[in-house]
């Protein structure tokens, strides 16, 4: 039997300390449900003593019917020179109605003197009183020893004394925090071993990523005896973030044979990671280990021909174990073997022999020569292959567009787009404004299509990149535009190339919408909307 | 004396295997110069046997006058069942003119059978012959043992035999590669120790980040005896990337007391990391350890009040050691000392004390908050400083512009720009076409100015980059445009920011031309040209 390791998720609390991360109560409730299905054991929902949004979360989390995870609220030890029973912060934890409280206290003598400015003795009392009071209220108590490693390195006796106080008061867990993220795996391992030899209470680890070592430190702590890991989805968190549970869990489970979640739950890891990024409205790094879209993507021709013989040649695990998949990037660096694998993914029969295959390869070579790059534009490549195989119908065709960008003295810049297109044989004329030329074109285009395909209302452009291909004469040279689009389930990328940045953007926009429409249901625009849309029957 | 660790940078080779990373020869040359100043010991520039772009890089790198780093070219061992002396790949290395060759060979018996499909014996010969041949050509040889850790775990005797062959043939370094990125620090440590006990040749480590452990594995290898670390700036590289030198170097040097680069060189780390991201046109993660803009940013109220008492309370190192800085509020200023240096360069008296200096710093903070970034836009910064010191006169002012981009059925896209401006008090109206909207604006603008300042005929735009700053809603978000311009003597960069890509480009174009006009002589347009120019006297 594999040794169990308990997973404590703090995406909703420490994760929101990350720059640019902000979650509404609704967001938090949605994420909590996903975390529960992923199989984490604790969900730290917030700090009820610090803001009202968090109090509402704890109130509403009771309606979630979580099947697996316990919700826990965060707070600090009582204030100095006061009573735990009347401490507002501790009483907020009790009032929040959770069954588990997580409180932090000081381990580092320097912090006791400098940050909270009290005596070493009073700090010990603050820890003891706070844990004991929460236990007396029937709560499970997780004690987070803030700055434990820095404290231990500076004054081991005192650091140990603080967690022994927490143990004496009845804490259910003692979690050692590398709050500043400055410790190295060797130190973490040694210190956790020492602590485990001194305590009966089970020990946990809470690591930060300031040295790019949070995952390594978490693994080192578990190998040294820790049985709980605190971290966040995608490593969100203050400064450089917390230990990334999307890497900690598969490493513990697939590489070190610990047991964190079930096999099925592990297979949801990639979708949970992407979902949390989506809700938090941040772009996930494509190269994120295990769950990133490039984590099992192959570019070099040598690698690709080898993985076709055997995936293990260049993949450290089977991607499906974490719900991810292999991708082959089609690029100038790669041979045609990449393309064959891509066609297989789409169930298109593209054996090495036929004329059709040769034509497709010639076409792609020609496009890459013109400056297209498909490794960052999966959706454009898929459209190209599907078109070549007659696997897709063009549901709209473009007739013309006109774009006007004007600035008059004293006014801000105005962008207008006028688009004429045929949708299912009907001519549609639309015009729209936008914050910029591409936004105006996007608005006009979607205005024309949304009445036929209401689903495209959910999609939006999530990234836009421009690169000059031939840099000799920049504004007269060709540019490549990459557009990334997102809806509730997917993210896809498209490419456009032209000497004209507007035309290149336009091309990538069209591909993005064409891809979004694959498999979508068409509806008939209501009669009273037809006039507004400028529908003209031919 | 601290033990030296040699830094081998492969940003230009393995780094470009990362999804979305593509570097021109010019880009590579620029980055190589920065790497040299950072103090890396080897710069792996590419694979001359694989593409012509890399051959050009090696040719041109000789003009760089690098003061510190050696440039090395990458390749593989000879083909099976052939001679090293006639192997095209090996001969490309020789012809590239570098003094150091880096070649990889197979260590994993599974790969010998599956990927290159030859006998274990022949693989040993391939390694021996290739290293010996390159040595006989007078080259320093770094032998990269591909998949060494997977190979060792599967068949330790054979894996050791491969590197012993490389040693016997005279390799100067044996570098152990965790090519699939699947190994853990404990394994890496044990295996490196074993290898170091069997070889006399110095050993290196080449780690990949598939388990989010590349930095930890690199440190573990050094602590076990490795004396060279291969990696990339910002961890660029295939799949999840290579070991991130921006974390490896400060960890080795500041935490473990090894010696990689000088103290001064370490202080350039943040600016090198940002420069490389800028050139590669990818967004750097704000939470990147050590060098990210959020690496020392404090959000939580408790943390902020503690760091105001003492920075050490929530910072694991002094940020200036790596050229980064603490951020508390929204204060993005890229090093006020940089600003002082810049002002000195321009002979502007900008001591730390005056009101004027404070106002300039406030202005720059405000602009950086809006999304401007002056690190990649020296000329815009210079204009801003000169303007603040009254050191420059505005020789033209803009009144209005209008841009029309249109595509009709069957026609190509047409871009027209109409510009109204005042030059030395005279109103000038011009219109021009272009290959794209920015080119049309550039043409109209220069048409208006060239009669007054014929010298600007020599300048042209040499690079044009666009970045979405706030990625929440891509085409409606702010964009930053960086324009690089070149004339016979100089290259300079300018920046523009707006929600509208055209307006941002326009702003950067104006700065580019204003910069070009500094110190240029004005002439009076000839009478017969005035009508053509649309000059109107007011």
UniProtKB/TrEMBL annotation, chains A, B:
The keyword Lipid metabolism does not apply. It comes from Paenibacillus oceani. Pathway: Amino-acid biosynthesis; L-isoleucine biosynthesis; 2-oxobutanoate from pyruvate: step 1/3. CDD domains: DRE_TIM_LeuA3. Gene3D superfamilies: 1.10.238.260, 3.30.160.270, Aldolase class I. Residues 5-267 form the Pyruvate carboxyltransferase domain. Belongs to the alpha-IPM synthase/homocitrate synthase family. Keywords: Amino-acid biosynthesis, Branched-chain amino acid biosynthesis, Isoleucine biosynthesis, Transferase. The keyword NADP does not apply. It is an enzyme of class 2 (transferase). This is Citramalate synthase. GO terms for biological process: isoleucine biosynthetic process; L-leucine biosynthetic process. It catalyses: pyruvate + acetyl-CoA + H2O = (3R)-citramalate + CoA + H(+). One of its GO terms (molecular function) is (R)-citramalate synthase activity. Its EC number is 2.3.3.21. InterPro entries: 2-isopropylmalate_synth_dimer, AIPM/Hcit_synth_CS, Aldolase_TIM, Citramal_synthase, LeuA/HCS_post-cat, LeuA_allosteric_dom_sf, PYR_CT.
């Amino acid at each position: 039997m594999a040794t169990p390791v308990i997973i404590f998720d703090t995406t909703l609390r420490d994760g929101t300390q990350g720059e640019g991360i902000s979650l509404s109560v609704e967001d938090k409730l949605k994420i909590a449900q996903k975390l529960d299905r992923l199989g984490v054991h604790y969900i730290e929902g917030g700090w009820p003593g610090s803001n009202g949004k968090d109090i509402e979360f704890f109130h509403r989390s009771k309606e979630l019917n979580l099947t697996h995870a316990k919700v826990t609220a965060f707070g600090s030890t009582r204030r100095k020179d006061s009573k735990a029973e009347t401490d507002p912060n501790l009483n907020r934890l009790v009032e929040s109605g959770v069954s588990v409280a997580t409180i932090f206290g000081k381990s580092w003598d320097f912090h006791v003197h400098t940050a909270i400015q009290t005596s070493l003795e009073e700090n010990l009392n603050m820890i003891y009183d706070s844990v004991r009071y929460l236990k007396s209220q029937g709560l499970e108590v997780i004690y987070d020893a803030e700055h434990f490693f820095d404290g231990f390195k500076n004054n081991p006796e005192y650091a140990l004394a603080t967690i022994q106080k927490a143990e004496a008061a009845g804490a259910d867990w003692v979690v050692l925090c590398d709050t500043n993220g400055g410790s190295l795996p060797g130190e973490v391992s040694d210190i956790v071993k020492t602590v485990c030899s001194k305590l009966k209470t089970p020990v946990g680890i809470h690591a930060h990523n300031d040295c790019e070592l949070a995952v390594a430190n978490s693994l080192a702590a578990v190998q040294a005896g820790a049985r709980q890991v605190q971290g966040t989805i995608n490593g969100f968190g203050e400064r450089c973030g917390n230990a990334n549970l999307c890497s900690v869990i598969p490493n513990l489970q697939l590489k070190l044979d610990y047991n964190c979640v079930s096999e099925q739950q592990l297979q949801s890891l990639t979708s949970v990671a992407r979902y949390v990024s989506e809700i938090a409205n941040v772009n996930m790094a494509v190269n994120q280990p295990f769950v990133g879209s490039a984590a099992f993507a192959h570019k070099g021709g040598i690698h690709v021909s080898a993985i076709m013989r055997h995936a293990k040649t260049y993949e450290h695990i089977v991607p499906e174990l974490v719900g991810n998949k292999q991708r082959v990037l089609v690029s100038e660096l790669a041979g045609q073997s990449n393309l064959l694998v891509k066609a297989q993914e789409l169930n298109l029969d593209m054996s090495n022999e036929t004329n059709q295959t040769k034509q497709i390869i010639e076409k792609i070579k020609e496009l890459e020569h013109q400056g297209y790059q498909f490794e960052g534009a999966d959706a454009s490549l898929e459209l190209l292959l599907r078109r070549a195989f007659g696997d897709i119908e063009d549901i709209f065709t473009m007739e013309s567009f006109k774009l006007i960008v004007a600035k008059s003295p004293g006014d801000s810049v105005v962008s207008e787009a006028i688009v004429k297109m045929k949708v299912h044989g009907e001519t549609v004329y639309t015009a729209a404004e936008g914050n910029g030329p591409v936004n105006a074109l996007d608005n006009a285009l979607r205005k024309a299509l949304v009445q036929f395909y209401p689903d495209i209302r959910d999609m939006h452009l999530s990234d836009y990149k421009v690169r000059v291909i031939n840099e000799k004469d920049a504004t007269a040279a060709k540019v490549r535009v990459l557009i990334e689009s997102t809806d509730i389930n997917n993210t896809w990328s498209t490419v456009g190339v032209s000497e004209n940045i507007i035309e290149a953007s336009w091309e990538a926009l069209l591909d993005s919408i064409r891809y979004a429409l694959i498999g979508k249901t068409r509806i008939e625009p209501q009669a009273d909307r037809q006039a507004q849309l400028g529908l003209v029957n031919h």
